[in-house]
């Protein structure tokens, strides 16, 4: 951490709902131990959880890379899944391609991406059909860091 | 700020230093040091989990002895409805209340009755729909403390109404002063408690106001007295004033079923409560207006200071609930009580897990914590006295433990020391070198 950044990476296993969310909950724990503002911890936990779950459900798992410094949490979730053909459509509330089997388990409300948008201070998604998706989430830990758009 | 008070403590003589309690504690508040469990005070939420799980009964709660009532001229008992579930031989609630009064009290006032007032007030809040959803019951002080240390984002969801116990004490004092012209300071009101958490809420109220209750006597301490009085009753007094709604509060789900909404969720058992609070914090719980969360499995009937098995108690109390239903008595929702039952103080976040006040130092500590944790075996065996390898790593960075507290690390270290010794042993100075080959060498040398 000589450069003032904590880096961690996690493997997100495919199709395993029982341990889905482990990466985001350990990031949550880290932020709490760092004494981050509870509201920021919540924003991070929810947005990362949604991205993590999407990788599990829609993309056969992937990896999460997390960087924490004094001012922000940066999360990159990468998968080599099918990609998202129409990102704008996918971002809409209620849009989902989750099959019934998954909807029966209480997932697939089509709220994951909208929630990420809502809770992340910055959200960048790069996706390519047949290659995979990269979701980058930034949550600022100090208020004055928030960028003006 | 006043020092942090909590009422669960250790009986040193009985503690064997096993690892049962450290594993169960929901806030990782217990460590074993020198063969004795130690509670990290600021972390304890008084859930009573360690009292229940200790095979040697070494965990207890600080409650007041029955003799405390002698300090007051006029003595009033306010029993938690849970008491009724403990007495299967009692014919009616009035029998129980009469027997309780015979234990040295001048009066008894049912907490169940005050519970109904809270129910009515909660209904109003729910109808107005002006609250942060879901509203979380504040009936269980252990849960409120849990929220304070682990779920700061949910502090605003807590139902900020005084507890039935406080309201009962206030009404009892006011009525007695009014009707009997006794000064408030001469009246001692004693809660007959099923748990440590309630004791704490009297001695150190959550909203930092002074409690109206003057002492807490545990159900288990007064149980035998009540039982023996039950057999000596001449005339049963009509002391019950609560309807079934109030009595039912002793059960998990009792508080919420009375609210007239289906949008509630009742959860009991501290570890289940944590799971639900996590769902709420992460906004995964939808369409719920009210959450009743009780630290004890089965609700207060499963309280750590009760005597009857929780399932038996459920059956017993059902009898009294049915009895109350038959008499049809119910607190009218429009009844006039001119008590301010809203919390006045503030409940604050207590970040007990934070590694350091300074973010940069906390970062360094967290990094070290991860490094140490990676080097630990990950067995969570508890032999070091910490509940898990990770918490040992945390204790080490906080300066409260050493890496060699881990028996595996210790063995590694002993082995490497042994190897070093062997190596040193092999490097004997020539004058002391007695091994054969060198002897031969020297002989040869001597031959020359
Ligand atoms: N990593 C991904 N790889 C491939 N497709 C994805 C990925 N993430 C999202 N999608 C697509 O975008 C849609 C919308 O995603 P979103 O997270 O908003 O909803 P959902 O995952 O279907 O349901 P919910 O998140 O509410 O459980 C998904 O149904 C899926 O088709
Ligand atoms: S009462 Fe609960 S929080 Fe306190 S030490 Fe025991 S188990 Fe831990
Ligand atoms: S559930 Fe009831 S008995 Fe148990 S700790 Fe909470 S208030 Fe006390
Ligand atoms: Mg999703």
TrEMBL record, chain A:
<feature type="domain" description="Histidine kinase/HSP90-like ATPase">
    <location>
        <begin position="48"/>
        <end position="143"/>
    </location>
</feature>
<dbReference type="Pfam" id="PF02518">
    <property type="entry name" value="HATPase_c"/>
</dbReference>
<protein>
    <submittedName>
        <fullName>Anti-sigma B factor RsbT</fullName>
    </submittedName>
</protein>
<dbReference type="InterPro" id="IPR003594">
    <property type="entry name" value="HATPase_dom"/>
</dbReference>
<dbReference type="InterPro" id="IPR036890">
    <property type="entry name" value="HATPase_C_sf"/>
</dbReference>
UniProtKB/TrEMBL annotation, chain B:
<dbReference type="GO" id="GO:0051539">
    <property type="term" value="F:4 iron, 4 sulfur cluster binding"/>
</dbReference>
<feature type="domain" description="4Fe-4S ferredoxin-type">
    <location>
        <begin position="6"/>
        <end position="35"/>
    </location>
</feature>
<dbReference type="InterPro" id="IPR017896">
    <property type="entry name" value="4Fe4S_Fe-S-bd"/>
</dbReference>
<dbReference type="Pfam" id="PF13237">
    <property type="entry name" value="Fer4_10"/>
</dbReference>
<keyword id="KW-0479">Metal-binding</keyword>
<keyword id="KW-0408">Iron</keyword>
<protein>
    <submittedName>
        <fullName>Hydrogenase</fullName>
    </submittedName>
</protein>
<dbReference type="GO" id="GO:0046872">
    <property type="term" value="F:metal ion binding"/>
</dbReference>
<dbReference type="InterPro" id="IPR004108">
    <property type="entry name" value="Fe_hydrogenase_lsu_C"/>
</dbReference>
<dbReference type="Pfam" id="PF02906">
    <property type="entry name" value="Fe_hyd_lg_C"/>
</dbReference>
<feature type="domain" description="4Fe-4S ferredoxin-type">
    <location>
        <begin position="36"/>
        <end position="64"/>
    </location>
</feature>
<keyword id="KW-0411">Iron-sulfur</keyword>
<dbReference type="InterPro" id="IPR017900">
    <property type="entry name" value="4Fe4S_Fe_S_CS"/>
</dbReference>
<dbReference type="InterPro" id="IPR009016">
    <property type="entry name" value="Fe_hydrogenase"/>
</dbReference>
<keyword id="KW-0004">4Fe-4S</keyword>
<dbReference type="InterPro" id="IPR007202">
    <property type="entry name" value="4Fe-4S_dom"/>
</dbReference>
<feature type="domain" description="4Fe-4S">
    <location>
        <begin position="364"/>
        <end position="423"/>
    </location>
</feature>
<dbReference type="Pfam" id="PF04060">
    <property type="entry name" value="FeS"/>
</dbReference>
<dbReference type="InterPro" id="IPR050395">
    <property type="entry name" value="4Fe4S_Ferredoxin_RnfB"/>
</dbReference>
